[in-house]
Specification:
Structural class: alpha+beta
Strand content: 15-25%
Shape: globular
Number of helices: 4
Radius of gyration: 17 Å
Helix content: 25-40%
Number of strands: 7
Distance between the termini: 28 Å
Length: 155
């Protein structure tokens, strides 16, 4: 982690060897009945949405000892949780009521093959009728904790 000052108020503080603590949290909530490949796919899609609209979640580019550069990644851990369909619906209502940045993945998206059709599949369903299989949320730690309350850490 860079020790250069960061004007971002949500940035972690790097104090040498002290543990890095974030006042924000990134959480992904997955429905427990997904196949392994679906869990991985949904998680990847969900977190990709955060970096496109919330640039402060993205860290600095990487470079190895030979000077080969690599793309930047999320700057903080992603906490992955598992929940029932009902708990996911409750978390969705909580994230909407708190107006936190979020991304959703619905069961309909497993049948589409491109971004245009993905967006159309979500657009075709009313908010309360979305068949959610995944939800990503970013925000202040305590607000995100309230959204995912009742879910358990993914095994």
């Amino acid at each position: 982690m860079s020790t250069h000052p960061n004007p971002n108020p949500h940035a972690a503080v790097d104090a040498g060897d002290a543990p890095v603590r974030f006042d924000t949290k990134i959480a992904v909530l997955l429905r427990g009945d997904l196949e392994t490949w679906q869990r991985l796919n949904v998680t990847a899609f969900l977190v990709s949405g955060l970096g496109t609209r919330i640039p402060e979640v993205i860290g600095e580019p990487y470079e190895d000892a030979d000077g080969v550069g690599y793309l930047p990644m999320l700057r903080q851990p992603v906490m992955v949780f598992e929940a029932t369909k009902e708990a996911l619906t409750t978390a969705h209502a909580r994230v909407l009521s708190r107006a936190l940045p979020r991304a959703v993945f619905t069961s309909d998206l497993f049948a589409t093959g491109n971004d245009r059709d993905n967006r159309a599949a979500v657009r075709a369903v009313r908010t309360d009728d979305l068949d959610l299989v995944g939800l990503a949320v970013y925000g202040p730690r305590n607000a995100v904790d309230k959204v995912v309350k009742g879910a358990r850490m993914h095994p």
